[in-house]
Write a structure and sequence with these properties.
The complex is a heterodimer of chains A (258) and B (380). Chain A has 258 residues and is an alpha/beta fold. Chain A has nine helices and twelve strands. Helix content of chain B is 25%, strand content 39%. Classes of the chains: A alpha/beta (258), B alpha/beta (380). The structure holds adenosine-5'-triphosphate and magnesium ion.
């Protein structure tokens, strides 16, 4: 049984179809990269997998550990081991990062029949993970993502992932906007979590991340469909010839390339 | 007999049945009762009471609580009593007509009180209560005042608090309203602030079926006044907060932040008037009212009223009405936090900055518990 099986998934927002039949299978321990032009539906796919109600699933099926994922609430998905690192992490004034993360961790531990961590044990484990990502401990006492720089927000996502130890991590453009040092830190944090039991879907625009997080498969998403899949060399190919080489119109990308 | 005459008649019987008091007090009461009889209860035709219908209070023949006797008051208190809160407000007049036991505190000039002055009203019987508080803080004095209102069953609290702060005095005031859900609560606070005085009030309103709070502050030269408010309503609760900040002299500063959380079929009113008198130049005033509306049926009316007669001033105001942020909710859920917990967490977070301003640790702890319980109730 695969960890995740997406079969012919269709999703709409309002009356607009964004995902137009996506099929993808992820086995335990695999890393899949998803690339594709702006607006192709990458974040939509990520959000649908995490359970965002904004998107209506109009067709297809998603099985996670053999179970109907789409029937589960977002919190139940998280408790079952799914983690989404948001492309745009949400600011939550008034809720401290520490309180938030402890509540999240304990909700997940409870589901898995583990004892809840007290403040002391929690802090110890969290400190370790913060060191891994070279994060300032002061961030713990600040409200969730509030006033964080773009890079701090992205690192905070990976930090949360490190604490929550998911089975399936979906990283949505975690590398965008990071300088090379921050990128290495994030990649280091991600790689520390790689293992035979942990799978990842890594959404990115840039081959550069994939130098550090080496994927088993690369898929190209365009206009709501996976138009090409291959090994890690596909990312290099894209870097060389752009989406145009695949016959995909992507003006933004073309302009952006110097 | 008209309905109004009947209402006044009921009050007259209670008024006349009061235990006799010192002549000066009898006189004060009689004049106030006269005033009340002329005014009657306000109706919604009165602009000040447009959104708050006090008919449920006016209709009921309220009794005096048993065993109420008047206390002796020092000369100093008598000089200040009933001098500030306007008797043109019928509820103030009514309170004065039933003046008996006055909670009077005087903080002598230059004295710093370490412990808060606590005035707790705990009531139980089906009666009308007219608690009166008078606080005189001398020049350079410093004190904290915590007024708490709580009770069980159905009753009517009609409170008046007068605070006079001398030059350079620092007063930190808290009003914690935890009345029973069947109670009617009307409270007027009048604050007279001296030169360079620094006054902060925190009005936390949680209980009551129908609640009206009036906070009126008159500022002097260089006075700083901060008005914080938090009101939580659900079910069929109604709360009306009316504030008046009167910049009477130059160089005054006022900060006002009122936050409301509404659920169920509740309703709330925020009316914040800022007056800047003609010679109150260099006034700096900021007013903010933020509302979190958790249900489709709750209603909020919010209105700033700026009367600015000076030209060299800075006055800003803003009001918001919003729902829980669905993105934030999803973010929390996506980390495994259940939907109802996520809702209560975000609701709590909305109130957090008001709670964080509370400087009395025990009070803060206590309110955090009250809010926590309340928001769990909200969320489910
Ligand atoms: N909430 C929404 N309301 C309306 N349209 C939306 C919404 N979310 C996404 N879309 C549209 O769906 C399409 C796919 O968006 P999506 O965010 O999934 O793209 P993406 O591949 O992640 O793009 P990017 O690389 O820019 O992050 C876009 O055209 C976008 O405008
Ligand atoms: Mg995206």
């Amino acid at each position: 049984m695969s960890l995740l099986e997406i079969k012919d998934l269709h999703a709409t927002v309002g009356d607009r179809e964004i995902l137009k039949g996506i099929s993808l299978t992820v086995d335990a321990g695999e890393v899949h990269a998803i690339m594709g032009p702006n607006g192709s539906g990458k974040s939509t796919l990520a959000q649908v997998l995490a359970g965002r109600e904004l998107y209506a699933v109009t067709g297809g099926q998603v099985l996670y550990q053999g179970q109907d994922l789409l029937a589960m609430s977002p919190e139940d998905r998280a408790r079952a081991g799914i983690f989404l690192a948001f492309q745009y992490p949400v600011e939550i004034p008034g809720v401290s990062n520490m309180y938030f993360l402890k509540a999240a961790l304990n909700a997940i531990r409870k589901q898995q029949g583990m004892e809840e961590l007290d403040a002391f044990d929690f802090l110890n484990m969290v400190r370790e993970k913060m060191t891994l990502l070279d994060m300032d401990q002061a961030l713990l006492n600040r409200p969730v993502n509030t006033g964080f720089s773009g890079g701090e927000k992205k690192r905070n996502e990976i930090f949360q992932m490190a604490v929550l130890e998911p089975k399936l991590a979906i990283l949505d453009e975690t590398d965008s906007g990071l300088d090379i040092d921050a990128l290495k830190l994030v990649a280091h944090g991600v790689n520390a979590l790689r293992g035979p039991e942990r799978s990842m879907i890594v959404v990115t625009h840039y081959q550069r991340l994939l130098n550090y997080i080496v994927p088993d498969y690369v898929h190209v998403l365009a206009e709501g469909r996976i138009v090409k899949s291959g090994g890690k060399e596909l990312a290099l190919e894209l870097e060389e010839s752009g989406y145009a080489g695949l016959g995909i119109a992507d003006e933004e990308e073309a302009v952006g390339k110097v | 007999m008209t309905a109004v005459a009947e209402q006044i008649g009921n009050w007259l019987a209670e008024f006349s049945g009061q235990a006799p008091a010192a002549p000066w007090l009898q006189e004060l009461r009689a004049a106030a009762f006269q005033r009340f009889s002329e005014l009657g209860f306000p109706t919604t035709h009165n602009e000040e009471w447009r959104f708050t219908n006090v008919a449920p209070i006016a209709r009921r023949p309220w009794r005096n609580p048993p065993g109420k006797s008047s206390s002796e008051l020092p000369e100093e208190a008598r000089r200040h009593l009933a001098q500030y809160a306007s008797q043109a407000n019928p509820f103030v007049a009514l309170n004065t007509a039933f003046l008996a036991d006055v909670a009077f505190f005087q903080v002598p000039r230059g004295t710093v009180l370490e412990k808060p002055i606590e005035v707790t009203h705990q009531v139980a019987s089906m009666a009308a209560y007219h608690p009166r508080t008078l606080i005189l803080a001398g020049a350079n004095a410093q004190c904290t005042i915590v007024e708490t209102f709580q009770g069980t069953g159905s009753y009517f609290t009609n409170a008046v608090t007068e605070i006079v702060a001398g030059e350079n005095a620092v007063v930190d005031h808290y009003k914690i309203q935890l009345e029973s859900r069947e109670a009617y609560h009307v409270a007027t606070m009048q604050v007279q602030l001296g030169r360079n005085a620094n006054f902060t009030t925190h009005s936390i309103s949680v209980g009551g079926a129908l609640v009206r709070n009036d906070v009126n502050a008159v500022l002097s030269d260089g006075t700083e006044a901060t008005l914080n408010g938090l009101y939580l309503v659900n079910g069929s609760q109604h709360i009306d907060n009316h504030t008046v900040i009167d910049h009477a002299k130059p160089h005054g500063t006022s900060h006002e932040l009122y936050k409301g959380i509404l659920d169920g079929k509740s309703s709330a009113v925020f009316n914040g008037r800022i007056i800047v008198r003609k010679d109150a130049q260099k006034t700096d005033s900021k007013q903010t009212n933020k509302n979190l509306v958790l249900s489709d049926e709750a209603v909020i009316d919010t209105k700033p009223e700026l009367q600015i007669l000076a030209d060299d001033v800075r006055c800003t105001h803003g009001a918001t009405i919003g729902q829980l942020d669905s993105e934030a909710l999803f973010y929390l859920q996506s980390r495994g936090i259940g939907k109802s917990d996520a809702r209560s967490l975000l609701t709590y977070a909305f109130a957090q900055d008001i709670i964080d301003r509370i400087k009395v640790p025990e009070l803060k702890d206590r309110l955090e518990k009250v809010l926590f319980e309340r928001f769990h109730e909200h969320a489910h």
